[in-house]
Amino acid sequence: xxxxxxxxxxxxxxxxxxxxxxxxxxxxxxxxxxxxxxxxxxxxxxxxxxxxxxxxxxxxxxxxxxxxxxxxxxxxxxxxxxxxxxxxxxxxxxxxxxxxxxxxxxxxxxxxxxxxxxxxxxxxxxxxxxxxxxxxxxxxxxxxxxxxxxxxxxxxxxxxxxxxxxxxxxxxxxxxxxxxxxxxxxxxxxxxxxxxxxxxxxxxxxxxxxxxxxxxxxxxxxxxxxxxxxxxxxxxxxxxxxxxxxxxxxxxxxxxxxxxxxxxxxxxxxxxxxxxx
Amino acid sequence: xxxxxxxxxxxxxxxxxxxxxxxxxxxxxxxxxxxxxxxxxxxxxxxxxxxxxxxxxxxxxxxxxxxxxxxxxxxxxxxxxxxxxxxxxxxxxxxxxxxxxxxxxxxxxxxxxxxxxxxxxxxxxxxxxxxxxxxxxxxxxxxxxxxxxxxxxxxxxxxxxxxxxxxxxxxxxxxxxxxxxxxxxxxxxxxxxxxxxxxxxxxxxxxxxxxxxxxxxxxxxxxxxxxxxxxxxxxxxxxxxxxxxxxxxxxxxxxxxxxxxxxxxxxxxxxxxxxxxxxxxxxxxxxxxxxxxxxxxxxxxxxxxxxxxxxxxxxxxxxxxxxxxxxxxxxxxxxxxxxxxxxxxxxxxxxxxxxxxxxxxxxxxxxxxxxx
Lengths: 277, 372
Hints:
The structure holds two protein chains of two kinds. Chain A has a single domain (28-275), classed as MetI-like fold. Chain A contains 13 helices and no strands. Chain A has helices at 2-35, 39-42, 57-65, 68-99, 105-115, 120-133, 140-164, 168-177, 181-192, 194-209, 213-218, 227-232, 242-275. By secondary structure, chain B is α+β, with helices and mostly antiparallel strands. Chain B has a six-stranded mixed beta sheet, with helices on both faces. In chain B, strands 13-12-11-14-20 form a five-stranded antiparallel beta sheet. The mean pLDDT of chain B is 90. The interface between A and B is medium-sized, with 20 and 26 residues.
């Protein structure tokens, strides 16, 4: 029994886990490898997998080739802006959906789902005309608002799930003890569902950080460009500067990975604490 | 001073009527128990009094003031929940201190009052722990502590003991009774367990399908049930109820049924309500008898009672419950353990006619008036 189980385990690792992992990691390996090459080696035939003349030159040069620091700042603002908007609007919406029974609650939930079925590209022209009509082109805040609007429905669904996991009696006890409903939400429901809040915050931040299509459409000047659109500039008509593109992408990824590592530890600990209760 | 009055209280959930015109007055310092099977509206009534559930119609008064539209925190009531509802992210001290902190009491006073309550409930050694580190009984004590720490006008308890094991439940039951007597605060206690209701309540309100069945002292409910539901709900094991007929016979009232012909004592016959319709000539009734009001005579078979076959004997140590079969009819009797018959034995059944309960078969309302 155990021997057979071990065999199945090994076979599944060899034939399933490793191939999937290879496919998933391949772009990252190429990204790292390319970021360590100069442009000549990038276009060398036959191509090399491991850089022949590894160099860190790209990492120092890229800051002067493009205003990378400003791109970073803009992406950060976009990510934080979207996170704040999603939390500020999503928390009350999700709370109401999970704690109150009101007319139209069910249709509203369905409506939220339906909004997720429109790809942003479909409506982008309309949204652009709206933004342009109000003279808000080239405004980072507008990008954050629009991106948050498209992300909000999913985050509300996520938050509703986390809030419904908190027994309503805890809030009711708090209200009997003398707090208002808002007080009960702030002192009980939010602290108890903070792993969920962090998950949603990360999700929203990532969405803002990776935001491309709205920034490409709504942002005109270089000083407001986020990383995604800025790096896109390396794809030119006659040549793609793969070495800089991959270096920029790597730097952008590292920030997010670092953020994840920072939070992951706390996140799992928070989930364990909740499950122990 | 805390008197609660519910006037024509109604609660609807959609089309479903959960509480149906409840009228009750809970006196100052009283321990009132709401009891009934699940879904009878007892918890909903309690939650409406506490302000956690809106009132569909009717009024709730606390000391004469209408409180229908007050938020829970404006009512100054404390509630103990079935699942304790301790705050999992607060330590025990902070759990008990929470209501005091919300009232912005000075730190020193909070500390002193929490310590006092903790001593009262025997949880001083737990103050530095987290709720998840406590056993069910300890959690329940802390939940009680959180309720009593601020001297509210009213305690609301929603099945606080039903998550505890049997032994602990009996112990906590006594502690809650003792505490309530000591503090003298008006208490409303919800339970589905009639033993809890009987042992704890100064008065009991029995509910079924959102309607009040009877309000009264435990003894009254037991000996003078207002209807068939109360008769069968209160008392464990339940009263045996059988169909029969009342007949007049030479100045006496006689209960004729499949298993016996009982001459009703005059005291009992006089209590039969005359205004419930139908002549005594031949009136169909449901009659009930509690297990302890049946005596078994298994030494000498006598002709003055029906003989029954002993079906099953359940010993409790001190007493034994005996299931009897008379023809097709099943009866339950309670005997002292040392007088218990053997299974398969034939015994003579004596029914104490003074302890008979009589109900109208249609309305199921008791035919017996309280006083002659």
